[in-house]
Each structure stands twice: as C-alpha cells, then as structure tokens.
Amino acid sequence: MSASMLRLASKRVAPVVRRSATTSAPTLARSISSRPLFAARTLPRPTLLRRTPTLARSITDQARAELDKMVKGAPLVLFMKGTPQVPQCGFSRAVVQVLDLHDVPPEKVHTYNILEDEELRNDIKEYSEWPTIPQVYVNGEFVGGCDIIISMHQSGQLAELLAQHGLTNAPKEAEVVEPEKQSS
Known about the structure:
By secondary structure, the chain is of the alpha+beta class. The protein has helices spanning 3-34, 37-42, 45-49, 61-71, 90-101, 118-128, 146-155, 157-164, and strands at 76-80, 109-113, 135-138, 141-144.
C-alpha cells in the first residue's frame, strides 16, 4: 500500500474512531458506574426498577369451604409435593422426616399431593396466605411450612404442640419403680 493511500485511509477512519471514543465511552462508563456491575450485565436498569403487578386471585367461597373441610378433616393435615412414601421435593421430605421423628401416627395424618391438582396447589397458597409448599395444619390451624416446622422442632415447640393435641405416640413419662429390696 502506498503512503498516500494510508494517509487517505487514516483520514477517513480517524474521525469515526474519535467520534465513537468521545460519544460512547462516557456513556459506557456512566452506565457501569451508576449501576451495580451485575445489573449492567443482566438487565437494564428500568427493567430492574419496574414492578410487575401480580394478578389478585380470589378463591371462590365453595373452594374456601372445601379447603376448610380438608384442613379440619384430620388432626394433622399436610399439603405436600408427592406422598409421605415418595416425596417429590426436599422440603416435603424434611417435613415428613420431622413428623416421623416425633412418632406421629399415620392414622392421625392426612396428606394431599398438590402435584395431582393444579387448582388445589394455587388455592391452598391463597387460603393460608403462605406462598410455599409444604404446609402443615394442626387441628384446622395453619402451623407453617418446612422452615417453621424445622425451627419448631429444633426449639422443642413442635414436640409441645404435637403432645398438646395428642398427635404423638411418644411414651408417657415412665413411672419410677423402686427396686425391690433383696433380703440377704
């Protein structure tokens, strides 16, 4: 390439380079410095600030009455993913294991697999105003989900609650029997 062609090419390219360097670089620096680095890479700022309205869903009176009947149908009711024999999520498995640790008899527990019924899955969340599954009810009252059940288990509150409602097979306090005196 001749020297004159190089000069001509640099004259044509140089203004473009200078323009892009002066116009886009400050914009880029301003966008990165005004936002956290992870936000600049994932979503534009307006998207992060915009809140999407959630559609208010109201369960029908008939569905609410049906859920009342389900919740009060057994001393302990568990809405879970899967069954106690085959839980379909770790949280449901954890609740089943905690109830097993407290020796809750199966005949006093009624479980509902919310994976079998999409309507039940949505309605129970609204009924309890609790967004996650599993959900535990004792004598018709909502106790909590997995995190609350585990916390209550660790603090001893769950054992008290279950004993108070007669939901454990735990042996009663054994009477102290004095050993017989042996005659020598």
